[in-house]
């Protein structure tokens, strides 16, 4: 492990880059998917097509996407933007389904009650619908987070540095320690992000802990996490 | 005063819920719409706060056609209590009760103070104030629902089968509580139920509805029992089954009230 100590600056540096490259797509994916999911829940005809589109996008293998993106969006080959854009597409694709489910999970009678007691449209949307969709949104976001953190490493294959660079480097030099450092680093970041999400959820949604969490939610996150994903 | 003028409602799918309904609901009294499902009673109730707009006719509150009033503002001026409490699950009891006050722009501090006060009025211990609705029993949730309806001190209180989903003992308690509240607060209450006993207990004016919002009979409970308009009413209020046809039998010097099937239902007070 002396290798790790000797290279601590580089490890830290790549870990920070890795966090940035993951955080931006996670946030963007969430922000883009939210209104789409909300709208898909209002206009039912929109739901089928948008979910199919999400599935199609999510099934594109990541490596080819990284490679062809520059010719589509006009970036340079080695630009980290390619990775960020590609991962935002994946994050949005997963998150749209979660967002649909999340808004669908909000009880119609509660919304009706809010309207009847005098909530205006926007007040109801932000004050009732969004917070009540929160638990399912969070479950989706946790899956997006883990998936994105792990996918960032694929960018190393096209020369965008991240903790994934330790894989490519380690493989070339047949140096297991370096690969292990990369693996452990990515797992730590994934856990860190997950912890931040869970804590934020607890702070923003104190009522969920007052009641037992519905079981289907956990099953759903499980399905997302271990269902088919993009190949690399 | 609430007035329905030749009101009709046909829903988008073609269902005719109400057909030419006219009625005056006097201020500071309780009017109960009672009928079996599909009689349009909830449709009529929801017309008062414009949750449903009539396709024909007008609804007036104090001689003002409510179609001319802003929906959101109108709803904030009318209390609404519904069957499954309709409380916001992500808000505490106190915040639920104060929600309308906050929407009306009252400061949090003032809203909390007023909410505490209303919770006390409906007989809910202040130790529940910081709980979430899911931590309360069904009966307690309904109390909170009533408190929320009363928080902004509206003149009108709409109640859509508010006690329909609680067990009989709690329902009995909540009904008594509502009578006490109404005695103190003097609201104009519009109450919807399918339970005739509840209608007769709570209503100053009872409106018995047939399908399509057709009025079978309107009147005070005693008047309806004294002279039911037709066989439908007799049967609906239970006069034909003998449960309400009572006679007195003397037993050990006391007068026992017995129904037509021979069941002793009570003792005549002297």
TrEMBL record, chain A:
It is found in: Cell membrane; Membrane. Residues 15-197 form the ABC transmembrane type-1 domain. Signal peptide: none annotated. Keywords: Membrane, Transmembrane, Transmembrane helix, Transport. PROSITE patterns: ABC_TM1. GO terms for biological process: glycine betaine transport; transmembrane transport. Pfam families: BPD_transp_1. The chain crosses the membrane at residues 20-38, 50-73, 143-167, 179-199. Its main location: membrane. The keyword Membrane applies. One of its GO terms (cellular component) is plasma membrane. It is a multi-pass membrane protein. Belongs to the binding-protein-dependent transport system permease family. This is ABC transporter permease. It comes from Aeromicrobium terrae. The lineage of its organism: Bacteria, Bacillati, Actinomycetota, Actinomycetes, Propionibacteriales.
TrEMBL record, chain B:
Gene3D superfamilies: P-loop containing nucleotide triphosphate hydrolases (3.40.50.300). Its EC number is 7.6.2.9. GO terms for molecular function: ABC-type quaternary ammonium compound transporting activity; ATP binding; ATP hydrolysis activity. Residues 2-237 form the ABC transporter domain. Keywords: ATP-binding, Nucleotide-binding, Transport. The keyword Hydrolase does not apply. Signal peptide: none annotated. It holds the Pfam family ABC_tran. PANTHER family: GLYCINE BETAINE/PROLINE BETAINE TRANSPORT SYSTEM ATP-BINDING PROTEIN PROV, GLYCINE BETAINE_PROLINE BETAINE TRANSPORT SYSTEM ATP-BINDING PROTEIN PROV. This is ABC-type quaternary amine transporter. It comes from Aeromicrobium terrae.
């Amino acid at each position: 492990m002396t290798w790790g100590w000797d290279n601590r600056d580089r490890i830290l540096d790549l870990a920070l880059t890795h966090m940035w490259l993951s955080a931006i797509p996670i946030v963007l994916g969430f922000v883009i998917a939210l209104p789409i999911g909300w709208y898909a829940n209002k206009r039912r005809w929109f739901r089928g097509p948008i979910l199919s589109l999400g599935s199609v996008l999510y099934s594109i293998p990541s490596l080819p996407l990284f490679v062809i993106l520059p010719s589509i969006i006009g970036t340079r080959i080695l630009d980290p933007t390619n990775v960020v854009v590609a991962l935002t597409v994946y994050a949005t694709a997963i998150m749209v389904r979660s967002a649909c489910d999340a808004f669908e999970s909000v009880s119609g009678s509660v919304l009706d009650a809010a309207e009847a007691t005098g909530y205006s449209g926007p007040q109801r949307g932000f004050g009732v619908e969004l917070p009540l969709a929160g638990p399912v949104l969070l479950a989706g976001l946790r899956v997006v987070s883990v998936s994105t953190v792990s996918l960032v490493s694929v960018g190393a294959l096209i020369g965008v540095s991240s903790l994934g660079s330790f894989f490519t480097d380690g493989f070339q030099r047949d140096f297991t320690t370096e690969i292990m450092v990369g693996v452990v680093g990515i797992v730590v970041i994934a856990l860190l992000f997950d912890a931040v999400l869970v804590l934020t959820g607890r702070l923003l949604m104190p009522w969920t802990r007052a009641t037992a969490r519905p079981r289907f939610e956990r099953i759903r996150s499980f399905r997302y996490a271990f269902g088919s994903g993009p190949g690399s | 005063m609430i007035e329905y003028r030749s009101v009709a409602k046909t829903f988008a799918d073609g269902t005719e819920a109400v057909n030419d309904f006219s009625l005056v609901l006097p201020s500071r009294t309780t009017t109960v719409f009672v009928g079996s499902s599909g009689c349009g009673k909830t449709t009529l109730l929801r017309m008062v706060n414009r949750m449903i707009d009539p396709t024909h006719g007008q609804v007036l509150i104090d001689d003002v056609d409510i179609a001319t009033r802003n929906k959101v503002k109108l709803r904030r001026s009318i209390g609404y209590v519904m069957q499954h409490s309709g409380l916001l699950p992500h808000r505490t009891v106190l915040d639920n009760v104060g929600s309308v006050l906050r929407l009306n722009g009252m400061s949090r501090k003032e809203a909390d103070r007023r909410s505490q006060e209303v919770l006390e009025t409906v007989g809910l211990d202040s130790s529940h104030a910081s709980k979430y609705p899911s931590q309360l029993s069904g009966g307690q949730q309904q109390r909170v629902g009533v408190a929320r309806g009363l928080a902004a001190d509206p003149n009108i209180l709409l109640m859509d089968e508010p006690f329909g989903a609680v067990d009989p003992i709690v329902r009995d308690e909540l009904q008594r509580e509502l009578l006490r509240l109404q005695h103190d607060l003097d609201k104009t209450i519009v109450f919807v139920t399918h339970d005739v006993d509840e209608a007769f207990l709570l209503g100053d004016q009872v409106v018995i509805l047939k399908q399509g919002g057709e009025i079978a009979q309107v009147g005070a409970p005693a008047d309806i029992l004294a002279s039911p308009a037709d066989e439908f009413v007799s049967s609906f209020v239970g006069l034909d089954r003998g449960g309400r046809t009572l006679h007195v039998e003397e037993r050990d010097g006391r007068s026992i009230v017995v129904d037509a099937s021979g069941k002793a239902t009570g003792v005549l007070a002297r």
